[in-house]
Write a structure and sequence with these properties.
alpha+beta; 5-stranded mixed barrel; 10 helices; 5 strands; about 50% helix; globular
């Protein structure tokens, strides 16, 4: 699993980019806000990565900040929000702006994002209310690419992988918790996913 890449922008694509790391080009899906930040970076940059393991592919999603990555994870926990739609929402809203819209119940504003209709806007306001309450308002300081953000924890990445394989978040989280309790905190991600799958098969 990949949690972070350090390299440079090689090419911009529709909905993503090719990120060059020591001559290897990684295809990353990204929000337009992250792509805009990458355009302004001279030399190398760090990208946080969400590795999504699917039955037919492995998809890498790149983020310019830990806040954007964490918001993506929260968005994809909402029914009806997949990878592309979550990135469309993040293209329209910075994480703190999305949280502010949810706190205000601004359904009209939320519908500015591609793919968000009235029903989904209602769902976002309802399901993200607790999350939004814990997000600080904008400070006025523009955040650059994540040069010092920590990679995702193994447990969080394992839960994300199981969700992308079709399991519901509560089932995935419970299985990962049981597997990690048995294996210990320092277990490699691959082992954690494998043992979590065993837990789910019981």
């Amino acid at each position: 699993m990949i949690g972070k890449l350090t390299g440079k922008l090689d090419a911009l694509l529709e909905g993503g980019c090719i990120f060059d790391v020591n001559g290897v080009g990684y295809l990353l899906s990204c929000s337009t806000k992250t792509l805009d930040r990458l355009r302004d970076v001279q030399g190398q940059a760090a990208m946080l990565v969400e590795t999504q393991v699917r039955q037919d592919a492995i998809v890498l999603v790149g983020f310019g900040s830990a806040a954007e990555r964490d918001t993506f994870r929260k968005l994809t926990s909402v029914q009806g929000v997949g990878t592309k739609l979550a990135l469309d929402i993040l293209s329209a809203f910075a994480p703190e702006d999305l949280a502010e819209a949810v706190r205000r119940g601004d359904r009209t504003g939320l519908r500015q994002a591609n793919g968000v209709g009235a029903r989904l806007a209602d769902r976002l306001v309802t399901e993200l209310r607790d999350w939004a309450g814990g997000i600080q308002p904008p400070s006025g300081i523009a955040a650059g690419p994540a040069t010092a953000a920590p990679p995702a924890g193994a447990a969080a990445d394992a839960v994300s992988a199981l969700i992308n394989l079709g399991w519901k978040r509560p089932e995935a989280q419970a299985a990962v918790n049981r597997a990690q309790a048995r294996l210990g905190e320092g277990v490699p991600l691959e082992s954690l996913i494998r043992d979590s799958l065993k837990e789910l098969a019981r």
